[in-house]
Structures are given as structure tokens and as C-alpha cells.
Amino acid sequence: MSFSWQAFAIASAIFAAMTAILAKIGVAQMNSNMATLIRTVVILLVTAMIISARSEWQKPSGGSWVGWACLVASGVTTGLSWLCYFRALQMGPVSAVAPIDKMSVALVIVSGWLILGEPFTLKGALGGSLVVAGALVLAL
């Protein structure tokens, strides 16, 4: 069975929504940094189980030092994002925190254009602007 990137993106959005609600409940009685550590360990275990079930273990090789450096930096920025997200969830309403977090969509559109050379389109500009506008409406 083969799924499209759109199916995986929709699944990602559903899981992200579940993450926000479950995390809000989870950090209510716990330090947000400890909650992030617990979440990270669970992600590591689940990913290891998926890789094992699919027999995808392999020796990490290939790629350039730039690719490796970007993966490491991506891991650092993911961790920082999660730490900030969980702290924000602990302090604010999930209905405002999650939309602000999703303003990353607009930042990715601009970064894709500036850094990756992806096309800048009216559709992308309009969509990114609507994401920002929606986040601001929900957060204010």
C-alpha cells in the first residue's frame, strides 16, 4: 500500500492536533521541560519500533558534512521548539498556543523561497498571509 505525501501531511496535522490536546493535559501537573524529555524518549522508542518492524536499520553513511550538520541543527531546533511549545502550553490556552505555533507555516514558505529557491507564488503568499492572520485572530 502506497500513500501520497498529501495523506502523510493530513495524518501529520491530525497527530499534531492530538499532540496539542494531550500535551496540554500532560503538562498541567508537571514541569514542561521534564514533559518534553518524556515525549522525546517516547518518540525515540516509537521510531525505533517502526524502523525495526520495517527492517530499516542501516549504518548511517553517505551524504555531505552539510547534510549531516543540517540534520544535527534540525534536531537542536526541534528540541528547542518542543521545549518552548510545552512551556507555552503550560502557561496559555491550547486554542491560542497551537495557532501561533503554526505560524511556522508562513515562516517555512518565506524560508523555502529565500533559502531553498522554491518558487514564490501568489498562492503561497496568500496562504501564508491567511495563516498568520488566522493565528493573530485566534491569539488576540
> Structural class per helix/strand content?
mainly alpha
Number of helices: 6
Order of helices and strands: HHHHHH
How many separate domains?
2
Rounded to the nearest angstrom, the radius of gyration is 17 Å
Indicate the proportion of strand residues: under 5%
User: How far do the termini sit from each other?
Assistant: 44 Å
Number of strands: 0
Biggest β-sheet strands, sense, barrel: none
Chain oligomer state:
single chain
Instruction: Label the overall shape.
Output: globular
Low-confidence stretches are none
Average pLDDT figure:
92
Share of helical residues: over 70%
How would you explain this protein's 3D organization?
By secondary structure, this protein is mostly helical. It folds into two domains: 1-92, no CATH class; 102-140. The protein is built from six helices and no strands. Helix 4 runs antiparallel to helix 6 (122-139) and helix 5 (104-114) runs antiparallel to helix 6. The longest helix is centred in the middle third of the chain and has 27 residues, at 65-91. The N and C termini lie far apart (44 Å).
